[in-house]
Design brief:
It is built from five helices and no strands. The longest helix is centred in the last third of the chain and has 53 residues. The chain is flat, with a radius of gyration of 31 Å.
Length: 199
């Protein structure tokens, strides 16, 4: 039924399209509520049928989400068409006078804005590349530290170091872990601030 209503959307006129959209949304909401009940019922199926029932419910969820997305896309396209029609009607109904300031096109401001956006994009690409390199370096250091830690433990066992020294080493490794997490958080904060203020 929802799919048949979706087919009627394209042929509906401006007056009835809202009614068809509301009807489709009501049916989709009803399907979602029924799917929640089906999900509960599928969990009560016998173990040998439970997996199959859950897969069928998930497939239904996916189908309904696809219909919901299609409805939203149609509404978005309709809104854009209506906005374009309004703008066209306003433009056609408008009367221009000589040296009207509204008829000028602010090319310089547009170019400057475009250059700022391009610069922000380049900066973000560089930040992302730098962040990727930092993460890779941290991974390599982690592998190296693990290997070093294992070797230290082996040497400590061979030399018979005391438990106090071993605890100090583990405490230092724990502190280094927090330093690494703090550095990652600081890097993410800097990236967020750059995106916030450059765009």
């Amino acid at each position: 039924e929802v799919q048949s209503y979706m087919g009627r959307l394209e042929t509906s006129d401006k007056e009835s399209v809202h009614l068809v959209e509301n009807e489709i949304q009501a049916r989709i909401d009803n399907i979602f509520s029924n799917l929640e009940r089906l999900e509960i019922l599928s969990s009560k199926e016998p173990p040998n049928k439970r997996q199959n029932a859950k897969l069928r419910v998930d497939q239904l969820k996916y189908d309904v989400q696809h219909l919901q997305t299609a409805l939203r896309n149609f509404q978005h396209r309709r809104y854009q068409r209506e906005q374009q029609e309004r703008q066209r009607e306003e433009l056609l109904a408008r009367t221009f006078t000589t040296n009207d300031s509204d008829t000028t096109i602010p090319i310089d401001e547009t170019l400057q804005f475009n250059e700022s956006l391009q610069s922000a994009h380049r900066g973000m690409d560089e930040l992302i590349g730098s962040g990727t390199n930092i993460l890779q370096g941290l991974r390599d250091q982690r592998v190296t530290l693990k290997g070093t830690h294992k070797k230290i433990l082996d040497v400590a066992n061979m030399l018979g170091l005391s438990n106090t020294v071993m605890r100090l080493i583990e405490k230092r490794a724990f502190q280094d872990k927090f330093l690494m997490l703090g550095g990652m958080a600081l890097t993410c904060l800097i990236m967020f601030l750059v995106v916030q203020y450059l765009t």
